[in-house]
Amino acid sequence: MELNAMVMENKWLNEAFKGEVPDFHDRVGWQCPSNIALVKYWGKKGKQIPQNPSISFTLSECCTETFVAFEKADRFGFSFFFEGKENPVFGAKIEKFLMDNQTFFPFINQLSLKIESRNSFPHSSGIASSASSMSAFVMCLLEIESLLIGPSTGSVTLDLCKASYFSRLASGSAARSVFPKMALWGATPYYKSSSDEYAVSLADDIHPIFKTYHDSILIVSSETKSVSSRAGHALMEGNPYAPARYSQANENIKNLLSALKAGDLDTFINITESEALQLHALMMCSNPSFILMKPNTLNIINEIRGFRVETKIPICFTLDAGPNVHLLYPVSEAEKMEQFINDNLAAYCVDNKWIADNDGDGPKKLL
Ligand code: PMV
Predict the structure, then answer these.
(1) Is the peptide bond before 288 cis (omega within 30 degrees of 0)?
(2) What is the DSSP string of 27-57?
(3) Pick from 215, 169, 181, 149: which is nearest to 49 by CA?
């Protein structure tokens, strides 16, 4: 474990609320965004430690709202509702996370929690929600803790490093969702405060062009993924290309960090597209192999590349672990892009569906 993370863990253990929970009940609520990685996290070790650092844009429209009602109880009580319906599968993940981390949050054994969660993005749009939902839940948990420790002081004083650390334990890429604009997760010599155990904000180290970037998400398929990211990460262990991948990712981190600072769009485009294709290439050469792209994923990629060559407009794509395409471009191109999407890309999408998203401001306190 890294020294600075050990120091922080000790501090969080020391400050944990270990007393008798007073006889009270309350409700907290947080909204957290999803994020889209530019340099991808694919492969992990130990306790949710990434094999290589990753960088992402924090989104704005694609987010999860979570409310937690809590009251004093003799022992831990728990129920989880997703979009109004009890959801034991997702609830079990949160329950496991709480049980695994009860030394940090011992007060949960004196609380009964009712968690209600919903996503802003359309139901079954094929967009993974674990980053936004787990980080939203962790923000609620930290707020409950701060209410027990002292009076509520609002979003600014919740420790985002702690939120990122525990979000990572709940779902790796969730570590990056608690920061506005852009985040870096994973230790790299090219960024001073970086860590494998939590993400850090890049908001102060990026050119203004990247603070208002747009991400139009083209919904090629709304089915849930055939291979979970947990299984995908595990398959990297036997992947013969893994060592080359990790060294390439480190190189991409170095070059992307300087491109983000300088506002160098050519390098940004080159690295972002290469990373998306590498992620899917790794899936194709794992054993067993799997393919998450669909024919329309490739049709859209070809359209984007053709349009870029023809118009010289600096657009590019990235992909998550699925067939949907994220079209990235500066805000100054938004009008032209809307027309391009409607004229050339929407026909490749399920029911012509796409989501207009952009660089977001991070978690929002709802109550
Ligand atoms: O956080 P996980 O375990 O769902 O993994 C996320 C993996 C990718 O979305 C493919 C890449 C990333 O860095 O977000």
Answers:
(1) yes
(2) EEEEEEEEEEEEE----EETTTEESS-EEEE
(3) 169
Residue showing tokens 């309350």:
26
Residue 59 φ then ψ, to 5°: -90, 175
Average pLDDT of the segment spanning 165-192: 98
Torsion of CA 31, 157, 191, 280, to 10 degrees: -10
Question: What are the phi and psi torsion angles at 183 (to 5°)?
Answer: -140, 155
DSSP state of 294: -
pTM of the complete model: 0.97
Is the torsion defined by CA of 238, 244, 247, 248 positive or negative?
Answer: negative
Stretch (H or E) spanning 68: strand 54-72
The pLDDT value recorded for residue 112 is 97
Pocket test for ligand 1, best of 173, 178, 292 (most atoms within 8 A of CB): 173
Query: What letter represents residue 25's amino acid?
Result: H
**In the structure, which protein residues have their CB atom closer than 6 angstroms to any atom of ligand 1?**
37, 40-42, 54, 130, 171-173, 229, 279, 320-321
Lowest mean pLDDT among 152-156, 180-184, 348-352: 152-156
In angstroms, what CA-CA distances link 271 with 7, 19, 54, 61, 362?
35, 50, 12, 25, 24
How crowded is the C-beta side of 3, counted as CA atoms within 13 Å?
A: 1
Average pLDDT over residues 192-206: 97
